[in-house]
Specification:
The complex is a heterodimer of chains A (383) and B (93). With 383 residues, chain A is of the alpha/beta class. Chain A has 2 domains: 168 residues, FAD/NAD(P)-binding domain (3-Layer(bba) Sandwich); 149 residues, D-Amino Acid Oxidase, Chain A, domain 2 (2-Layer Sandwich), CATH 3.30.9. Chain A has 11 helices and 19 strands. In chain A, strand 14 and strand 15 form a beta hairpin. The radius of gyration of chain B is 16 Å and the shape is elongated. Chain B has a two-stranded antiparallel ribbon with strand order 1-2. Chain B is built from 4 helices and 3 strands. Classes of the chains: A alpha/beta (383), B mainly alpha (93).
């Protein structure tokens, strides 16, 4: 694509956020939308994630967003004209500790009040939902049948493909080196390929978003953690029908429709070195967890191991909206490991904010000024 | 335009045809890693040992570049598939 030096909107990052935001901007009639990525489409956190989609959250805001996401994903293949690999076979949450079990039950009460049909299930039901479930030391389970997972690659490429058909311009292999701000307004970006003048710049840079924000003089209290994950060879369907997830057990395990089982956990020590490395320690911890939770995986082979960045915010909720001191600079960051599932909904919300339309879900409380005001809304339900 | 060679399976693990690879290269996906993400080519048990060269050669042919100028894509552990039980049971800490 030929380089031009002006645009109406520049989006930094071609993961789920950037591809979705740019697509919804075109749908809202914005003329010239340019997406920049230092690597390729879906090369960062989105393409490395655990792929889950859930409405089982612990804060009202995340429950509302989560339910909207489940609904959005249900119609997304049709909306984008490409299969996004949706698999709705529920999340089975597993509690091992008294306090955690209390919290999960509280979450269900909150979720039910907000129209989410999650429920507490006993051991017998849990075994029906997931035959082969181990976890003999579990205290209780909750389940929501509409939760599930989708293919992060196909979802992102569907937004990318549809966006390009509508006229979104992508420049991959392009690194943003500076953001131009004057008189409290953003007016463009500088890259290693040249500059682009634009009255709106959107930070959708995932694990690197805090550095992009500081280029515009906006300091966000975010940091990025490396999380590791494994995938097995494809095996027969039904080995792990739901997404199995536990906060104290520290795992999520799911089986893709294709047959591979994906498993991840939160690493000890939360490395914040921005290295996308892999470790033997994780491999051993994760396989031991799998044997305890799903003993039937013993003879299955792991084919691949990788890692990605969680862009963490202080209260583990996303940071959305326009910067206070830099008009035209928007952020869609800090998803704390849940950017993929929220992306299709927050992408539309950010596009609404940019064109001055009232979004369907009010996200004012997710503005970063909450950190200055001390109004944190800590999300308890995060692995 | 369909070609007889389109039916050739280039990635035996994931059963990806040369035709599918060509279709997505024509859409503008010019790196092995992007094609891997879309088609799963190279994601199976052999980890691209069979298909990587073929896909890179096809990208080179269709974009008019030298094969040496096409990024080879990422290589991830494990070197070969290993059973979960074998890793979990290892006593080494």
């Amino acid at each position: 694509m030929e380089w031009t030096n002006t645009a109406d909107v520049v989006v930094i990052g071609a993961g789920i956020q950037g591809t979705a935001i740019s697509y919804y901007l075109k749908r809202r009639g914005v003329e010239k939308v340019v997406v920049l990525d230092k690597s390729t489409v879906c090369s960062g956190a989105t393409g490395r994630c655990g792929a889950g989609i859930r409405a089982q959250w612990g804060t009202e805001m995340n429950c509302r967003l989560g339910l909207a996401c489940v609904e959005k994903f249900e119609g997304l293949s049709q909306e984008l004209g490409m299969d996004i690999g949706l698999n709705q076979s529920g999340y089975l949450m597993v509690a091992y500790q008294d306090k955690e079990w209390e919290q999960l039950q509280k979450n269900v009460t909150l979720q039910n009040r907000l129209g989410i049909a999650s429920r507490v299930v006993n051991r017998e039901e849990a075994n029906e939902i997931c035959p082969g479930l181990g976890a003999p030391d579990a205290l209780g389970f909750t389940f929501h049948a509409r939760d599930g997972h989708a293919d992060p690659f196909l979802t992102t490429f569907a937004y990318h493909k549809r966006g390009r058909e509508l006229g979104v311009i992508y420049h991959t292999g392009t690194t943003v080196t500076d953001i131009k701000v004057a008189n409290g307004k953003v007016f463009g970006v500088v890259t290693d390929k040249g500059h682009i003048d634009a009255p709106v710049v959107i930070n959708a840079a995932g694990g690197h978003s805090q550095f992009i924000a500081s280029m515009a003089g906006v300091q966000l209290p975010l940091f990025s953690e490396r999380h590791e994950i494994i995938i097995t060879e494809p095996v027969d369907a039904g080995v792990c029908p739901p997404m199995l997830m536990s906060f104290s057990g520290n795992y999520y395990i799911q089986q893709r429709p294709h047959g591979s089982i994906i498993a991840g956990c939160s690493p000890a020590g939360h490395p914040q070195d921005y290295e996308l490395g892999t470790s033997w320690q994780f491999l051993q911890q994760m396989t031991r967890t799998m044997l305890a939770v799903l003993p039937r995986t013993r003879g299955m082979r792991i084919v691949r191991q990788w890692s990605g960045l969680y862009n963490m915010s202080p209260d583990r909720q996303a940071v959305l909206g326009e910067a206070d001191d830099v008009t035209g600079f928007f952020v869609s960051v800090g998803f704390s490991g849940h950017g993929f599932m929220f992306g299709p909904v927050t992408g539309e919300i950010i596009a609404d904010l940019v064109v001055g339309r009232e979004p369907e879900i009010n996200v004012d409380m997710l503005h970063y000024r909450r950190f200055q005001l001390g109004e944190l809304i800590l999300e308890p339900a995060v692995v | 335009m369909e070609r007889p060679s389109d039916k050739i399976i280039v990635c035996r693990c994931e059963e990806v045809t040369l035709g599918a690879v060509r279709q997505w290269i024509a859409e503008g996906y010019h790196t092995f890693d992007e094609l891997k993400r879309i088609l799963r080519v190279g994601m199976g048990p052999c980890q691209g040992r069979g298909c990587r060269e073929i896909v890179l050669r096809e990208i080179a042919a269709m974009t008019g570049k030298q094969m040496s100028d096409i990024p080879p894509g990422s290589f991830r552990p494990l070197t070969r598939p290993v059973k979960i039980g074998a890793i979990a049971d290892d006593g080494g800490e």
